[in-house]
Amino acid sequence: MLERLISSFQNILKIPELRIRLFFTLAMLAVYRVGAHIPTPGINNEALGRFLTEKGGALMGFFDMFSGGALSKLSIFALGIMPYISASIILQLLTVAWPHLQALAKEGEAGRKKIIQYTRYGTIVISIIQSTGIAIGLEGMSEGIFVQSPGWSFRIMTIITLTAGTAFIMWLGEQITERGIGNGISLIIFAGIVAQLPSAITNTIRLSQTGEIKTAVIAVLLAMMFIVIAAIVYLEGGRRKIAVQYAKRIVGRKVYGGQSTYIPLKINTAGVIPPIFASSLLAFPATIAGFIDIPWVQSIARQFAPGGFIHIILYAILIIFFCFFYTAVVLNPVDLANNMQKYGGFIPGVRPGQRTADYIYSILTKITFGGAMYLAAICVLPEILILYLNVPFYFGGTSLLIVIGVGLDTVQQIESHLITRHYEGFMKKGKIKGRIG
After folding, report:
1. Is position 437 within any domain?
2. Do the Cβ atoms of 53 and 194 come closer than 8 Å?
3. 3-class DSSP assignment, residue 262
4. Does residue 260 fall inside a structural domain?
């Protein structure tokens, strides 16, 4: 097994294009991690970081996970990639309701580029709103402790710094997607989560040695992580295959068609998108409220914190909603039925056309419901258990799902490059059950 792994890495280095893409991706992620440690000007980062770590609790741990620790330090990347994800959610929702965006979505590559441009504008607007709330909140709660020179100069500097930081992360993600390996935005979130894992393990070992965490609790956590990882790996490769038969067609002297194939519908077509979208929506109001020192605002922020009843319910509902919404965006049963009919394909026992679309829609609804329940359980149940056991760090089902899902996607892309050039990949027989991006 070890020899096969070493051989696969050697094969990667033998392909110039793949080697360049891989090193470029690693370099961009390294730049992101360096930026996560550059402090925002005009702020006592040491005092603020200590305050947020002590007072932020699970809410800070939940949001800090997606920024790679940049939020607790209030570095130039404190807002992370969440404003971009929020803008993407808004644009995708508007695409369903706004005819202009619907027309752009049907224009192919040109329309897609226009929608991406709108998403960038939305990212800047959301970043300005969030950074303004953070700047004003810091002035209101600090009394000169956290902010060195309060006033409009500090506010404008903070707004420009944090907004520029998010814009730069957005650019990094797009560069990785275009010139590197994997989905850039997902890899940035992946890198932020993985970067916090060593400190979480070290902290857990230290608390175990001092007796603050019992050995039984650690055993339960390890067992939970093993079960969650096994469930994610197994279910992410699950598919419902719909048999498709193509009729024979004679064109001139050649015979086309006649073969049997299938449509592979994944249990989790949406991948890691629903929990990321749901987390982003919950982070938007809670991040601003956390920096405003008003009792009723703080009370609302605590309700949105992980472990709170409102947070758990909203989080599960949003995950289920985005599972159905994103699946509807990615897979259109009517288009599938029309394309099959166009090329002489049909599902045995089902009439072509609308009957085929209804049949695919029925199956897609059932497996999406199962996938949505699986995602909600994976993301919510471990969080409840972690909070119940008073674990001193936040690393629940959402983070595990993102790390494993993004890892599978990236390995799939590397595997495709290797197989295309007739090299042996990471997986047995050169095949990996990929996921729809």
Report:
1. no
2. no
3. strand
4. yes
Give pLDDT, residue 437.
36
Whether 124 maps to a domain, the answer reads yes
Range 288-292 contact pairs with CB under 8 angstroms and sequence separation of 24 or more: 288/129, 288/130, 288/133, 288/134, 288/137, 290/56, 290/59, 290/60, 290/137, 291/133, 291/134, 291/136, 291/137, 291/138, 291/140, 291/141, 292/133, 292/136, 292/137, 292/140, 292/141
pTM, 2 dp: 0.76
Report the candidate in 116, 267, 96, 106 with the shortest Cα–Cα distance to residue 177.
116
Is residue 176 in a domain?
yes
Write out the H or E segment, with its range, that includes residue 260: strand 260-266
Cβ of 73: how many Cβ atoms within 10 Å?
24
Burial (CB < 10 A; 0-12, 13-18, 19+), residue 313, is: exposed
Nearest to 74 by CA among 146, 126, 145, 129: 146
Alpha helices in 143-253 (DSSP H): 152-179, 184-210, 215-236
Mind listing the pLDDT tens digit for each residue in 376-408? 888 887 667 666 666 655 556 777 888 888 888
The rounded distance, in Å, linking the Cα atoms of 36 and 259 is 54
Mean pLDDT over 289-312 rounds to 67
Q: d(Cα 315, Cα 317) in Å, to the nearest integer?
A: 6
Considering only 247-256, 297-306, 365-374, which range has the smallest mean pLDDT?
Answer: 247-256
The whole domain housing 49 covers 2-430
For residue 95, give the nearest of 120, 114, 78, 115 by alpha carbon.
115
Q: Domain with 42 in it: what CATH number? A: 1.10.3370.10
How many domains does one find in the chain? 1
**What confidence score (pLDDT) does residue 89 get?**
81
222: confidence class by pLDDT, cuts 50, 70, 90 = confident
- Average pLDDT over every residue of 159-169: 93
CA distance 88 to 85: 5
